[in-house]
Amino acid sequence: MDFLRPTTWGEALAAKADQPDAVPVQGGTDVMVEINFDRRRPPALLDLNRVAELREWAMVDGACRVGAGVSYAEVIRELGGPLPGLAQAARTVGSPQIRNRGSVGGNLGAASPAGDSHPPLLAAGAAVEVESRARGVRMIPAEEFYLGVKRSALEPDELIRAVHVRPATGPQYFSKIGTRNAMVIAVCSFALALHPGERRVGTGIGSAAPTPRRAPEAEDLLARELDWAAPLDPALAGRFAELCAAAAAPIDDVRGTAAYRVHAIAVMARRTLTWAWNDHLARRAA
Ligand SMILES: Cc1cc2nc3c(=O)[nH]c(=O)nc-3n(C[C@H](O)[C@H](O)[C@H](O)COP(=O)(O)OP(=O)(O)OC[C@H]3O[C@@H](n4cnc5c(N)ncnc54)[C@H](O)[C@@H]3O)c2cc1C
């Protein structure tokens, strides 16, 4: 197995162009498990750890541009203010060791329906910056990035460079159900982001469909019927929860049944909306 070690982004793109079957490695918390269990035997590994810029984040054109190699620990430490939904999700990932090594870019690269970054990225309306040597940069909206179970819109010669997320303008929440409290892949998860300026609520459903996905009809309902100055109408919250559950398309598997997941999505949707709404009203009153 070849081990490619670029030191710059340009070298990384060139290596991927010359050898599209080389598997990128950032934290290795997915890749190394697959290799250790002999589920994958790639002809080459493309180690991105020497490409320093991937570990950085910055504000670019009003959005947080989070390098693909930024770890969950860094998201928690440095981005809890602008990206509270993503930081909450990061806190639920694995263990301290996994949060130190594992990255948001790696979560996107793996494109598992259960990945914890995806629901908050969908709810916040994030875009994934990918690049190839041949065609340059493409910005892919998060909702167009996930194509199937562990399949993404990334082409074989492309690498993920960063994810762009607008700083929160309202409360955001992430909720995750696991079979225990820590070190657990989500049975299902849900993220919600209030966008008060646009009078809009974003959603993200995890581990309850072949891909992470939004609940567009539930979002439309709130865009039409929410009174942003009033307490939350419990009947409206209930209809929102039902539409979120209806947007899910889960399966029975070792972690939970489809019926349980549908029920749980409704519960998490109602809860996260209620928590976010309480915060929203408190901020208005302050
Ligand atoms: C014990 C344990 C617990 C875990 N718990 C959770 C959890 O609670 N929640 C969760 O979501 N995940 C969990 N994971 C899975 C994993 O930690 C995450 O998916 C993590 O985000 C992967 O990041 P990484 O940097 O380690 O990725 P890597 O393993 O390096 O890569 C993952 C995938 O992304 C690709 N890739 C990496 N970087 C790029 C790039 N720049 N461009 C293109 N492709 C790229 C790789 O080729 C690979 O296919 C867990 C894993 C373990 C081992």
Write structural notes for this entry.
- It is a single chain.
- With 286 residues, the protein is of the alpha+beta class.
- The protein has eleven helices and 13 strands.
- The strands form four sheets. The protein has a five-stranded antiparallel β-sheet with strand order 4-5-10-6-7. Strands 1-3-2 form a three-stranded parallel β-sheet, with helices on one face.
- A hairpin with a 2-residue loop joins strand 8 and strand 9.
- Helix 3 crosses helix 4, helix 9 packs antiparallel against helix 10 and helix 10 crosses helix 11.
- The radius of gyration is 19 Å and the shape is globular.
- The termini are far apart.
Q: What is the makeup of the main sheet?
A: 5 strands, antiparallel
Mean pLDDT: 97
Task: Find the structural class using helix and strand composition.
Answer: alpha+beta
**How is the largest sheet built, in terms of strand order?**
4-5-10-6-7
Q: Tell me the fraction of residues in β-strands, as a range.
A: 15-25%
- The helix content, as a percent range, equals 25-40%
Uncertain runs are none
Shape: globular
Number of strands: 13
Would you list the SSEs in sequence order as H and E? EHEHEEEHHHHHEEHEEEEEEHHH
Give the C-alpha Rg: 19 Å
| Tally of contiguous helical segments | 11
Bound molecules: flavin-adenine dinucleotide
N- and C-termini, Cα separation: 60 Å
Quickly list its features.
single chain, 286 residues, alpha+beta, 3-stranded parallel β-sheet, 11 helices, 37% helix, binds flavin-adenine dinucleotide
